[in-house]
Structures are given as structure tokens and as C-alpha cells.
Please model this.
Amino acid sequence: MPDVDPLTPHATTGGAVRSELRIGERIRATRTDQGLTLDETSRLSGVSKSALSKIENDRASPTFEVLERIAAGLGVTLVSLFSEQAAGHSGRLTSTPAGGGRRTEDHNYIHEFLCTGLKDRRMVPFVTTVKARSAHQFEKPASHKGEEFLYVLSGDVAFVSGSYDEIRLTAGDSLYFDSRLSHLCYTTGGADATLLWVWCETG
Model:
């Protein structure tokens, strides 16, 4: 799964503001619900107090690996940080209207996270717009626990992993891989590409 960065809200074609995924707020809420201080959470997760404070206030963009450490320190699943089930809600079904997902954006990707309304789940589905035109645009590829599936909805992309040859994909092509492999995607067709991407927490 690509790393997650904060997003400035974008207006839709109808003028409404698309809501953003605020992982920092979820981390802070989880920590305070457990009665933990920043110092205690830092000790449990191995993430510095200053870094945690910046993440909670959306002043720093955590890598996926850092999010894994924070979730482990808080004793919660990583998926729960991408979920927003309301207190007292016990349903086992959720949906997302077209264009209504929670969004994040960085220089390389725009992610729209889908069906975030269930906390106790194992999968994180999202639609990704690939903006990167080269692997060199990435500071480093992602690598973390879990398994992933991606399906190209439109455009052409290259999937790059340090362990395998570069794989070229076009609309209708799909890929399933172990998230521990270093990975990134960039578009090869001169225009943004769109992927359906699913990350599954394992173990």
C-alpha cells in the first residue's frame, strides 16, 4: 500500500468539498480513549514524541511502516486507523457513493478510500489516481505487512519492485502481491492512470 499523506480538500464538479482522510485525528482519538500520553505512546510504539505530535496534528506525513508501529503500540489493528465507524454502530455493511470516499494526496498519488464505515474489517479498498511519471519521483518504495491486489481501471502503469522485473499493466490488467515486497507504480501513458487498489491486513 502506498504511503499516506494529508490532503487539502478538493472541490467536486458540483462544488461540494470532498472530505479528507484524517489519520492523525484517529491516532489521537485512539490514544486519548486509552488514557495514554504522547510520552507513553512514544515508548510503546518506538516513534518519537515530536513525530507523534506532528502526525496527530497533520503536520507530518507518516510512512506506512510508521503507521504500523503506532498501531502496534496502541494495541489496535492498522485497518482501524483507516476506518471511521461511529460509536455504538454495530452494522456489518457499509457503502460509499460515487466520489464520496475519504481522500489523501501527495506528489505521486491521489487515494480515495472506500467503505471506511466499518472498524472491524481486514481490507482497505481505495481508488488511486497515479500521477507519477517515473520511479525516480519517489523518495523510496513502500514496504510493509499484508497482501495487496490492484486492478487497472484506466491508463497504463508500470509496477516496480526491487525483487522482480518491472511489470507493465494496462486497463483490465490486475496484480496480486505480498506487501513486504518494495513497491510503487508510475504511469507510462503520458496521462494519469486510475487503479482499484485493495490492501489486506494479515497475521
